[in-house]
Design goal:
six-stranded antiparallel β-sheet; globular; 29% strand; alpha+beta
């Protein structure tokens, strides 16, 4: 038996309220894993957003840590650095949705990008790969190496040699 992992780590500069929103949204999604939503909870907009993401991803959370820190050099802006990392195994799809929701809510035009690695603790064929994601307020575009290989092979085998 092999244990499989999806790992990534990245930092993004965001306005402080946006960074705090993303962190709180991730924490709320994680809390849904362990608790039931009450009638009172349904009045909280953060819980409603978290529930939508949680349900869309089969009741899973991001598996990540969201950490907020000050910029290395002081500036006039109130921006912060949001670090997102999966120490053991995280969900790029859920992280992407959290960040897309954040960009949309705060009307941030700049895209966020990150890459991930998929690997296993036993070297068996088919258990390694990775991907990349570009997130904007309007959409998420993701590229997975396994899908890319499948798509490329399908195109190549349909062509006749020569």
């Amino acid at each position: 038996m092999s244990n499989n992992y999806t790992r990534f780590s990245f930092a993004v500069r965001l306005p402080a309220p946006a960074a705090e929103f993303a962190k709180e949204l991730d924490e709320t999604i994680a809390a849904l894993y362990d608790t039931e939503v009450t009638k009172e909870d349904r009045r909280d907009p953060m819980v409603l957003i978290a529930q939508r993401i949680f349900d869309a991803h089969d009741g899973n959370d991001s598996g990540c840590a969201f950490q907020i820190e000050d910029l290395d050099k002081p500036t006039k802006s109130k921006d912060k650095v949001l670090y997102v990392f999966a120490e053991e195994s995280g969900s790029p799809d859920i992280v992407g949705e959290i960040l897309r929701t954040t960009l949309r809510k705060f009307k941030i035009p700049s895209p966020i990008t990150f890459e991930w690695a998929e690997y296993a603790d036993n070297s068996r064929p088919g258990e390694f790969g990775g991907g990349a994601m570009v997130i904007t307020a309007k959409r998420i575009r993701a590229h997975n190496t396994s899908r890319w290989i499948d798509t490329t092979l399908a195109r190549l085998t349909r062509r006749k040699p020569g």
